[in-house]
Write a structure and sequence with these properties.
CATH architecture of the largest domain in chain A: 2-Layer Sandwich
Largest interface: A-B, 79 and 81 residues
Structural class of chain B: alpha+beta
Oligomer: heterodimer
Shape of chain B: globular
Strand order of the largest sheet of chain B: 1-2-6-3-5-4
Number of helices of chain B: 16
CATH superfamily of the largest domain in chain B: Metalloenzyme, LuxS/M16 peptidase-like
Distance between the termini of chain A: 56 Å
Radius of gyration of chain B: 22 Å
Number of strands of chain A: 11
CATH topology of the largest domain in chain B: Cytochrome Bc1 Complex, Chain A, domain 1
CATH superfamily of the largest domain in chain A: Metalloenzyme, LuxS/M16 peptidase-like
Number of helices of chain A: 15
Number of domains of chain B: 2
Strand content of chain B: 15-25%
Largest sheet of chain A: 6 strands, mixed
Chain lengths: ~425, ~425
């Protein structure tokens, strides 16, 4: 069931009568794409502040209300959206609904709490900085984009984390958090008619709000390859490569999902299993066969993560001990050349389609995952977007994939970050 | 055999003539998949001296290629079924799990049986897995999180203790391991005796037993391997350790100690004690005090790992080097307070209600339920243990919780390990 309240709030209800739980997700079409230099990290920081109090819930009371009934709650910030979720035993569905309706437009962003949260945000970023992969990926985007806000990580620049003020965050929240930019998804064990009425009662009275979050900055096409080398603690050298790709709404998006499976072994959107994470063991994938099988690399993966604006098709390869990144890169180039010339074999294509179709089979098991997927696809596209994506994807032929590879893997659209560890690999 | 049940909180069991224990759990009402796990006595505690890393290498290699399938064919078979094959290794056991749509029951059990009974352990796969293990060894040493985790165990447990290692071995030991060694370890440790086959399925226990009996045959007639000797853990921890790792951004703090086995009757009280300290997300004392009140760290929590031969506990946080001393002191104060003062009734009620109330969340999916059943099976808990868990928690009072905190998470023997960009001057720690 899908409906839109007069104040602009979009509501999706996915009842599953047998479910012992109910999962409530609120998605806002605001993320780091809506920031600008000086306020990077604001979306993420506002996400933290939405747990720090609202008119009916004092600091910590939201957490307590959900967790004390056995529920779980959290939130995350991406480039294109911010999502808040709670999953509770079904009889407690009213608890997250009450919280979300209270903080959608009336969160308290108290200066003292902002200051206390500053060190927590710093700590979150520092924890990520301990990982060479985070540093390299941040650098990849920083290098690939010169104008578009995809240039910075949703955590924001360290300098901005030190400088942002409570007034900045409050203004950002007032500007973007509103019914018009929000999608409420409820999945699990509930009665649809009763819950729809409850939603109308709680959320229908909120004032219409939320400034248009459309980003009009267009990143100009690259005129040549960009590359850099980072050094620091680590194990063996690795590289992150990115090619400028299309936005999720582009007609070529389904081909990019298939390229992800053919080259790297899976697409995060349609993978079997219970998690959103990725695996690196895909022995039938092209890059695995060229790099991992012969012992050149420890792992080799790709990722095309659909984004509202043109994103990157990413490739990560970690060298085996004693193998140079030059050799890794040459092997990747040769394999991509081969793919550009011939495209996938009929068998490869059939297997990739099967992988996606079967991987989607259990994607909606459980209220939490259902709520996530419905909201995620709503953020990326329009109603019916997921099935449309799959339909178009299954219609693609080998030459479509070859053409897509020719279009995307252009040298002038490539960015390369090499990571060279400064500590020699000794006996651990 | 026990009676059938459609309640996923009840686990039915049967022991086959081979010694393999089959445990069956009903699929939660809203789920559409099935899961099965083999849990066998092949953890890294069984690594022979000088062959550290052997159990890990076997565990990682077995699912590469098995039966008639090489690794590509095996991966394709999983893709066609829309299924996953995962494994995890612990000190005491290895666990292989398959999960897929309900109609993949038969072919997925075939595949699981191949992995357990007929892994190829092929030479080309061995070299690839060995390289990956080398890299994991380096990563464990290079990352403050894993380095701190490793060092705290090395500090808590004496040489020879099965919980002292993390199972990755050393480069030189792993480099020496041969295929015959791997095959011998598999034959002696991927046994029927002392092992469990846990199935979460809509099928009855009788049907599950029939399916297992037909597939999981041909185990070597090995008895369950004898558990390792367990050296006594020293009373009182050694001096605190700071591991300086320049170039990193954050210090990882670990405070922990030896604990007690899961079979201890005080486990429900110890479980709640850990939940109060740092186990319960967002509500625990460490999260509240370290993060929410003092803003010292993004993550602050604790964990309790009770196993068969004992266990350990650990509090952890990650913070910038300039905040590390304050965070360390605060965590130590909270550990000591829990062992000293009874928990207030309101706090205990909230934590307990949360722990009891979360059971439906585990039953959202087949895998969530399956994890509970695997725990019941492996620890030989009663069939209705999950049903009675709320009552067990309800019986724990503040004083019992305090006593459990004192014995299971003893602040007097806790050790402190910190890894990351620490300053040149070692901070002074005082034992409490």
């Amino acid at each position: 069931m899908r409906f839109v309240l007069p104040n602009g709030l979009t509501v999706l209800l996915a009842p599953e009568p047998a479910s012992p739980t109910a999962s409530v997700w609120v998605w806002y079409r605001v993320g780091s794409k809506n920031e600008w230099p000086g306020v990077t990290g604001a979306s993420h920081w506002v996400e933290h502040m939405l747990f720090q109090g609202s008119p009916r819930y004092g600091k910590g009371e939201m957490d307590r209300a959900v967790i004390s009934v056995g529920g779980t709650l959290n939130a995350f910030t991406d480039t294109d959206f911010t999502a808040y979720f709670s999953t509770v035993p079904r009889e407690h569905l009213h608890v997250p609904l009450d919280i979300e309706s209270d903080r959608m437009t009336r969160a308290l962003i108290a200066p003292a709490e902002v200051e206390r949260e500053r060190t927590i945000i710093r700590s979150e970023r520092e924890g990520n900085e301990n990982w060479p992969e985070f540093r390299a990926e941040e650098e990849l985007f920083h290098l690939a984009y010169r104008l578009h806000p995809y240039r910075w990580d949703p955590l924001g620049y360290p300098e901005d984390i030190l400088a942002l003020t409570p007034a900045d965050l409050a203004a950002y929240y007032r500007r973007y958090y509103g019914t018009r930019n929000a999608v409420l998804v409820i999945a699990g064990g509930f009665d649809a008619a009763r819950t729809a009425a409850d939603v109308r009662r709680r959320f229908g009275r909120l004032p219409a709000g939320g400034e248009d979050p459309t980003v009009r900055v267009v990143e100009p096409p690259g005129r040549g390859e960009r590359r850099t080398t980072l050094t620091g603690p680590g194990t063996t050298p690795f590289l992150e490569m990115g090619w400028r790709g299309p936005a999720v709404g582009d007609p070529s998006a389904p081909a990019l999902l298939l390229l992800d499976v053919l080259l790297g072994g899976e697409t995060r959107l349609f993978r079997a299993g219970s998690t959103w994470g990725r695996s690196s063991e895909h022995p039938s994938a092209r890059l695995y066969r060229r790099l991992v099988d012969p012992g050149l690399a420890i792992r080799a993966t790709t990722e095309w993560r659909p984004r509202v604006h043109p994103g990157l098709f990413g490739l990560h390869a970690q060298a085996s001990r004693g193998v140079s990144l030059d050799r890794i890169e040459a092997t990747i180039d040769a394999e991509l050349d081969r793919f550009r010339r011939t495209g996938p074999s009929a068998r490869e294509l059939r297997e990739a389609r099967t992988k996606i179709a079967r991987g989607a089979a259990l994607a909606y098991e459980g209220a939490s995952r259902t709520g996530f997927r419905l909201g995620y696809f709503e953020m990326l596209g329009r109603p019916g977007f997921e099935s449309d994506l799959l339909r178009r994807l299954f219609a693609l032929r080998s030459r479509d994939l070859r053409d897509a590879a020719r279009e995307i893997f252009r040298p002038e659209g490539r960015t390369v970050v090499r990571y060279e560890p400064t500590e020699g690999p000794g006996d651990a | 055999m026990t009676r059938e049940s459609s309640d996923p909180l009840r686990v039915g069991r049967a022991v086959l003539a081979s010694g393999l224990t089959v445990a069956r759990q009903a699929v939660p009402d809203a789920a559409r998949s099935f899961a099965a796990s083999y849990i066998g006595p092949a953890g890294w505690a069984y690594d022979p001296d000088g062959a550290e890393g052997l159990a890990r290498l076997v565990a990682d290699l077995a699912p590469s290629a098995a039966g008639r399938r090489d690794r590509v064919a095996l991966a394709r078979a999983l893709d066609e079924l829309g299924a996953t094959l995962t494994h995890r290794l612990a000190p005491e056991s290895v666990e292989y799990s398959v999960h897929g749509p309900a109609d993949t029951f038969e072919p997925l059990l075939d595949l699981l049986a191949d992995v357990v009974l007929r892994p190829r352990l092929a030479t080309e796969d061995l070299e690839r897995v060995r390289r990956q293990l080398f890299e994991r060894q380096l990563r464990e040493a290079a990352q403050p999180e894993s380095r701190a985790d490793r060092e705290v165990l090395r500090t808590i447990f004496p040489p020879g203790h099965p919980y002292r290692a993390t199972g990755l071995g050393t480069r030189s030991a792993v480099a020496r391991l041969t295929r015959p060694q791997l095959a011998r370890f598999r034959a002696g440790h991927f046994t029927a005796a002392g092992a469990y086959l846990v199935v979460t399925s809509g099928r009855s226990l009788t049907e599950v037993v029939r399916a297992i009996r037909g597939r999981f045959t041909g185990f070597d007639r090995e008895p369950a391997p004898a558990g390792p000797a367990i050296p006594a853990v020293r009373a009182g921890g050694p001096a605190p350790r700071d591991i300086r790792m320049p170039g990193r951004a954050q210090v990882e703090i670990r405070i922990g100690g030896a604990s007690r086995p899961r079979s201890d009757p005080d486990y429900p009280a110890a479980f709640l004690a850990n939940e109060v300290l740092g186990g319960r997300p967002l509500l625990s004392r460490l999260f509240q005090r370290v993060r929410e009140v003092h803003g010292l760290a993004y993550h602050a929590s604790s964990g309790l790992e009770p196993m068969r031969w004992g266990g350990y506990w650990q509090a952890q946080a990650g913070t910038g080097p300039e905040r590390a001393d304050r965070a360390t002191a605060l965590i130590r104060r909270e550990i000591a307070r829990l062992a000293r003062e009874p928990v207030g009734t309101g706090e205990l009620t909230t934590i307990r209600d949360s722990a009891v109330g979360e059971m439906p969340l585990a039953l959202e999916t087949t895998l969530g339920a399956h994890e509970l059943a695997a725990d019941v099976a492996y620890h030989d808990l009663p069939d209705d243990w999950l049903v009675n868990w709320p009552r067990a928690l309800a019986a724990v009072g503040p004083e019992q919780l305090r006593r459990a905190a004192r014995t299971w998470m003893d602040p007097g023997t806790a050790v402190v390990v910190r890894a990351g960009p620490l300053g040149p001057v070692a901070p002074v720690h005082r034992r409490q």
